[in-house]
Give the backbone structure.
Amino acid sequence: MTSKPFTLRWGVLATGGIAKTFTKDLLVDPSTRNASDIRHIVAAAASSTSVSRASGFLQEVGAPASAKAYGSYRDLVNDASVDIIYIATPHSHHYQHTRLALEAGKHVLVEKPITVNAQQARILFALAKEKGLFVMEAVWTRFFPLTLSIQDFIESGRLGVVKRVYADLSFWNDVEAEFESSHRMVNLDLAGGALLDLGIYSLTWVFLILYHLQNASGQSGKRRPEVKGAMSLYAKTGCDEMTSIMLSFPGAAVGSKKEEGEEEGNGDAHAIALTNIRVSHDPNTEHPSASPVRIQGTLGDITVSAPSYRPLSYTIIPAQNANRGKLANFEFQTVEYQIPGGGHGMFWEADECARCIRDGRLESEVMGWEESEVVMEIMDEVRRQGELRYPEVIESTEYPLEGFGL
Ligand SMILES: NC(=O)C1=CN([C@@H]2O[C@H](COP(=O)(O)OP(=O)(O)OC[C@H]3O[C@@H](n4cnc5c(N)ncnc54)[C@H](OP(=O)(O)O)[C@@H]3O)[C@@H](O)[C@H]2O)C=CC1
Ligand SMILES: O=C1OC[C@@H](O)[C@H](O)[C@H]1O
């Protein structure tokens, strides 16, 4: 007997670039990705600019005629026919808009980075817990079958003990010519800059392996890394244009299979997380650079194709040399993926929201609250070391504040 799929009704808050991409993915038939247990309905969208912008958006993405258009975010979160709000405003606005939705009793999927600092994230998670609502940071890369397959491979122990992860997401921009000072990539009032927009993916790859896969049993929790950052600021706006982070995970190397009774811990692991808006991880597509993500175990490497936020292949490379030969039990292989259904690949995170809400879970195990919080703490620390502070109004935890279209 097949049971009816669980239906999740979405309200889209904001009508910019990623809101369009995500909403189109919501409309992709889940059966194209072999998902028969859930379905998504685009129930409404809101623009802070005008109701006509919201209706133009709904038309453009191909939403059903029943979808409602609102000219205010508050009206959207108060719509009884909406279960979950997808927040796609600039980073600076995530805290205020997530609170708006939670206070109205709605579940939330909020674009990355969840907030501009860790304290804001903590408050949101506490509020969601108090109200019994689901909240997740929309780090879509975590939900790709490719990503889960890499994690499985490492957990199986076949790569040995992971000692080092290198991850880069950087773009070759003519910053002065391409970005007006008001552009969200460089505007400090919108928490612009490389770290929060792109560097979060480099940290994501580090965390997917060296944090997420840590075996925390028998310890008081997962081991957090020590962090050293280098940051250079863009003279025109003060946002970060280059940020490089070294992380050391003491005694937290992951990957080997432990035998019964064996001591916890595989020694240290190191990571390098890079981001830049002056030079690229791959400046010339005719002559591709080395992989932007490299995971190095004692039995071999995994390299991941660019771009690191939406890779379509990875390669497993068994370590081998004249002295030691090959100890790994796998062969060199490139594994290729396609995004099904003509979508962009954002539907997998939407499916996760539906399943969590269906099952009464307030947080996802793939992108849980604690991990979002620790990543934010690292970005706070790197900013502290780099002396980058955003304007008080967007670092604030006060709510509600004027000027956020509430
Ligand atoms: N997961 C991913 O792959 C991606 C994620 N992102 C994330 O999504 C978020 C939005 O990025 P993106 O869609 O590219 O941004 P856009 O600038 O294209 O869109 C942002 C939207 O937010 C609304 N908004 C509300 N207040 C403001 C304000 N003060 N200034 C500007 N816009 C405002 C506007 O919609 P309206 O007028 O309708 O209210 C605007 O269209 C960011 O947090 C970014 O990190 C971005 C790109 C890719
Ligand atoms: O999340 C993102 O991924 C792709 C980038 O181009 C974009 O700026 C960023 O927000």
